[in-house]
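# step 3/5: fold
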Amino acid sequence: MPILDILVFVAFVASVIILGLVKSRNEKTGEDYFLAGRGLTWWLVGFSLIAANISTEQFVGMTGKAADWLGMAIASYEWMAAITLVVVAFVFLPTFLKSGIYTIPEFLEYRYNAFARTIMAVSTLIILVGVPTASVIFSGAKVISVFFQGVTVLGLDLGNITVGCWIIGCLAAAYVFAGGLKACAWADLIQGSALIIGGGIIAYLTFRALGQADPAVLAQTATNPDVSIDTLTNGGPIARLIELNKAALPEGKLHMVRPANDPEIPWPALVVGLWIPNFFYWGLNQYITQRTLGSKSLAEGQRGVVFAALLKLIIPFVVVIPGILAYNLYRTDLRDQAQIKNETAIAEFQAGEDKIFPFNEQFAEVQPETANAILKQNAAKAGIEVSFAETLEPEELVAANDTVVDAAKQADLAICSTSLIGYDYDAAFPTLLKNLLPRGSGLMGFVLAAIFGAVVSSLASMLNSASTIFAMDIYGKYRGRHHEVKQFELVTVGRICVVAFVLIAMLIAPKLGSPNFGGIFTFIQEFQGFISPGILAIFIFGVLVHKAPRSVGTVGLILNPILYGSLKYLVPQMAFLNRMAVCFGVVLAVLTVMTLVKPLPVPVVLPINAKMDMRTDKGTKLFGLVVVALTLALYVIFW
């Protein structure tokens, strides 16, 4: 990197960290460290929600999915979030702030029982550390490894994904160790703003590159075989975007509707299934809701949440559309990155190792001769006869090899842990950075600092929340039965947890590069399904059904992972969002029956935080309705 870019990067990161630590220097109690002394104003809440949420999970995972076949369908995670946040602001948040809770599991003890609190605390910790925390570390390292490929600093190869994971994890842990939620919130104010500006810069540069690209080269990447060369030659960037991505799969990358049998976002999931992870994430996910629990008042919290909802409408335009264009502009780069990822498996195949090697259709399309050779060797090892004609279409090669792989599994033969791929879509965003950012102007330093800040911000949020759950729901709860737990002790335990949890996540993160996970974004959503439908169901009953018996909390938390795991094993072809919808419906039905059979004679009385100002205002409600209307308009345009 040129010296000016380095200086801008270092100055930006240093100023953000110093601001956060200065603002949090007087943290003495658990409320100070974990909830910023319950003094966050609406603009801190709003920007902090966005900065905690938007990270390389979106810039790498969501951009990658957009570059692949999902296109604008993946934007539903963002636009549904806008409506979800409005509901959270006026339905969930008043209950949580009025009760004065530190954590979401704590609410379960007041509403249901201590066992439900413990189950949720433990399951949330496992998922939080093992899934989103590890995923953000990996996706941040992915940016480093692609952008700085071949660069060595102090003997460390920055192109190595494991090195990147340890760099990202250690820096984030050091930051959150020193300062708590207040440090995160103030840093998020700058990083959230810079992130949106940086994303806007990348979107602008992507469209500029699209307008300057060779029409003949672009035509080779079109999803429509009848692409109009005249439109690509004479049209502007918007016309080129539409022409390249219309009528594909067969709906087009610029439309949200996908077939009912789509493995990731079938259209029924847009109607039902996608609401479940959205409400869980924005209303009941500790590392997100911790910001709202630190609100100065109900009115400040609601304004902040609705403001965040408005910002969510912008994200697809700076993440998803550049992802779609990454394939059109830099398909060759994505293919080269796939070859790097495939190197180990290809070397094992060429060495004749006693394994069966899976591959996808795009690998068969990019490397048909190698795919034929792999199919032939796989079939010989599995003892299956297949056609080896060189004229087999890619889908025929994959179908034949999948048959061999299934037979090999039945025979308990060794299967290669990584599936060979034609394009590395998770490399889409770092490829855009590498090709588009001008060097020496300071712009590269600013955008990279914004992306780095997003990674650190999200990780800091996750680690702070995980440490809060352990300190308050596990350590403080059970040690408090026998000893008085001092505030300093809780903060110390929280800081020790930060170190322990980041070490666990850094050990998991490098393994997430395997194509078997289906991409970072899918991995996160898939595994959160083990807890999200059940948690959402019991909170709906806890908040809205006042006579629901205390036992429904435990039953819902235990029943959901059993159902979800059973469906994943018995019906593996079912899209994970559909699995979530089925589990959510079954759990709701069971809890309804339990409530009808044995309702509480007297509703549970929740604790009241007398210090919290519970007044709201009509202006915020009107603002929320405007956000919902804008969201519906976007769905009409892109449906």
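# step 4/5: annotate
The beta strands are 152-153, 156-157.
# step 5/5: archive (pending)
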